[in-house]
Structures
1.
Amino acid sequence: MNYLIVGLGNIGPEYLFTRHNIGFMALDYLAKLKELKFSPDRYASQCSYKLKGHQIYLIKPNTYMNLSGKAVNYWMQHLKVPKENMLILVDDLALPFETLRLKPKGSSGGHNGLKSIEASLLSSEYPRLRMGIGDNFPKGRQAEYVLSNFSEEELGLIPEVLERSIPFMETFCLEGIQQTMNKYNQ
């Protein structure tokens, strides 16, 4: 069975350590653990590995956040992966920094990457791992906040957050969303 894990983010060195790129960071962390290299491909950088008989595809869209749906839709069709076998890794302002929460569906919550995916799939019913980035910004400064770099203190904690994201991803592929939520949601 095929699974597709999509990390949301923006391409380019200026976005590397921004809050909006935590989805990319999580996939980079997993790829490093598995000794995988991302290769540029259509609408995304991609790599894959086998996990107990399942083929796991990792993609980082190169369409920029606001057009993530184009890459997601293409790779779902190309790999013949149903929505329930896809997991989106997304930054979330509504969750405190370091919080990870898996959900089977939900609204975009104003997140442009999720809005784009919903528009492409004509549905908001797809699994997502919400990765908390906090909401420590002045009113009206949301865009600046998500596109700003993590603080030094936060960067020191990021490896532990990324490490905790791995069981969410792999258990999702092996045991399904309900079991994963039961085991790991905070």
2.
Amino acid sequence: MQIDAVDQRIIALLVADARASYADIGSRVSLSAPAVKRRVDRLRSAGVIRGFTAVVDPAAVGWTTEAFVELFCAGRTTPAQIGAAARRHPEVVGAYTVSGEADALVHLRAADISHLEEALERLRAESFVTSSRSTIVLSRLVESPGVGPSTV
């Protein structure tokens, strides 16, 4: 599927505010509301836009402690096994296979250090995890929901 500059702007506007009306987006990209809707429908049917979601501030719900955890796994652990295990833990907000020494990188969020320690211990108890290395986040410097350079 070809994505032109107008599609890129529409995507960027939706990333910035998924509740923006087609009319509002249209006024910013010089299209009518129905034309924007057709483009969004096309982007959705092609799988470019997978859905719309609310972005919740973790601090607002009391989950202010976070860490990145490198997982070192036994032998032939597959990405599917790591992903399935990560989904079992509500504190996991992201899990990735990575290059380098570790096999996976897991992003955890918790209410406090005690909760984080409990979540980490449960994650480390997964049968394939041989060891881990954790880094506690002190402050967030940059956070973007976008997919690349902003074109808004």
3.
Amino acid sequence: MTTQDIASGLPGEDHSLLLVDDDKPFLTRLARAMESRGFAVDTAESVEEAVAKVRSNPPAYAVVDMRLGDGNGLDVVSAIQERREDTRTVILTGYGNIATAVTAVKLGAIDYLSKPADADDVYAALTNSSGERAAPPENPMSADRVRWEHIQRVYEMCERNVSETARRLNMHRRTLQRILAKRAPR
């Protein structure tokens, strides 16, 4: 099967794809995988670089990491929607939470995937027609992991201030310190 055959499975004629991630090895692997599936791939490793590329040539598809070295991937999603409303954007993140997913969708993202996501997951999210439902994850996060993710998100929102985080979570500061000292549950 040639790249042209694969590309014919993509909706529309514009197969431009912008990949935005600050993890260089992951970005390179995903770019190669998406090129083999018929996309014309461009990459960016920062919010600033991505926004500049969006302003000069808005893509038909985009895959954007939530946390980048110089800011938030949601800024890239906003820039994409300002320039081209029909862009199919997928958010990738290692910190999955409902509030961020809702914000991403409100800004125009069509899907939200937790890392590690493979090229098949990304391709399926980009090409999924709006009426189809995504399959439930085979290995969903445990309740302990969801709790840990929520605590980490609040901790980051409080700029890593343990006392403020404990106050917002209505928990004792030392209890929070013990939780933060442990590894993430599976």
